[in-house]
Amino acid sequence: MAIVGCGGFIGSHLLKAVLQRTCWRVFAVDLESYRIQQHLADPRVEFYCGDLANPSVVQRIAQFPVVVNLAAICVPSRYMSEAATVIRSNYDHPARLADACAKSGSWLIHFSTSEIYGKTAADSGLLEEDSADLVFGSVAASRWSYATAKLLAERYMAGLTNLQWTVVRPFNFVGPYMDFMPGVDGEGIPRVLANFSTALVRGEPIKLVNGGLARRTFTSVHDAIDFIFCIFENPAAAKGQAFNVGNPDNEISIAELARIMTEIYADVKHIPVEEIPGAQIVDGVEYYGVGYEDSLRRMPSVEKAERLVGFKASTPLREVLRESLTWFAEHYSTSDCLEKLAE
Ligand code: UGA
Q1: Could you tell me the distance, in angstroms and rounded to a whole number, from the CA of residue 77 to the centre of ligand 1?
Q2: Is the pLDDT of residue 340 over 80?
Q3: Does ligand 1 have an atom closer than 6 angstroms to the CB of 10?
Q4: Beta bridge partners of 242
Q5: In whole angstroms, how large is the CA radius of gyration of the chain?
Q6: Does ligand 1 have an atom closer than 6 angstroms to the CB of 293?
Q7: To test the ligand 1 pocket, which listed residue (173, 181, 191) has its Cβ within 8 A of the most ligand atoms?
């Protein structure tokens, strides 16, 4: 099989699971490999440093019978300032890969996003894969550059004759190796779990965008990997379908997430919670840039995944937050990381 974006957050967990649970060979494609360094010596792994901008890599990838595409620019802080690049990464590249897979006969498992459901309101209900109406902000609100590109990629794949496809729509996967710590292994603003973890590790106030009123349903990355195996095991049911992958039991507001993460971090580090700086409210446009808007609730219907491939996420929020914060605190307290921070 081929895993595109193998060196990223989800890709690193998927590679580990494929090596543990199967005897498959993996063509692993990414621009970075630090999260999968420990697997690169495995004779079943061939790592290629590159991306889908390169047509010859696309052709090579499409020679594998199963192709999982995880490559994407997917941090909201970049959707405003780099809209054109975001659209190329989330539409042009996957469309090119889809064309190649349609020609070769490969099964393309493409990671889209829960953000294709658009600017959902605080009182929006269950989002169903095949019946939800989609509403986005205006073109001036470039927050939606990513979502519109992802949506078009989905429509393109569904419209291509001869393509065997499955679309996955993640609902805020979280776990170890998520995103980066600014100034250490990345620049800019990572997604909420990594940004809150960074603030906690550095002893800085957590930033609550627009008061942290938006809600999300956070899903353990380990559940997400189990879902991918459910579709590997049920190809006939999974082909030609888009699936929400989320955990409705883990719905929480961002302000409440900040409170729980602070509490768990204090416990993990054995420090009194009062020693941790309180959260600070910031304005979304000032924090992320002009064009930032938000979806206020994203509640997945998960009935289809259970019915067609037998998947149901089960990891409670507190469990995955504890695992992630423990990992974050350990991983970013090595001397290498501390030196980078001091530079
Ligand atoms: C992002 C991507 O755009 C989606 O494609 C992706 O599917 C999704 O993450 C995901 O992880 O599945 P979003 O949920 O808005 O969407 O991303 P975050 O940056 O993690 O923000 C979540 C919420 O927390 C937003 O309301 C944001 O304003 C808030 N936030 C984020 C804060 O209050 N403070 C922060 O420091 C960071």
Answers
A1: 9
A2: no
A3: no
A4: 167
A5: 19
A6: no
A7: 191
Enzyme catalytic residues = 146
Whose Cα sits closest to atom 37 in ligand 1?
192
The pLDDT of residue 109 is: 99
Q: Where are the beta strands (DSSP E) in 232-298?
A: 241-245, 251-253, 280-282
Question: How does 10-23 read in b/e, with b if 16+ C-beta sit within 10 Å?
Answer: bbbbbbbebbeeee
Residue extents of the structural domains in the chain: 2-255+281-342
DSSP for 50-117, written as a single string: --TTSHHHHHHHTTSSEEEE------THHHHHTHHHHHIIIIIHHHHHHHHHHHHT-EEEEE--GGGG
| Residue tagged 């349609």 (tokens) | 102
Would you tell me how many other CB atoms lie within 10 Å of the CB of residue 163? Answer: 22
Check if CATH label 3.40.50.720 holds for domain 2-255+281-342.
Answer: yes
Average pLDDT over residues 120-144: 97
User: Residue 106's pLDDT is what?
Assistant: 98
What is the model's pLDDT at position 334? 73
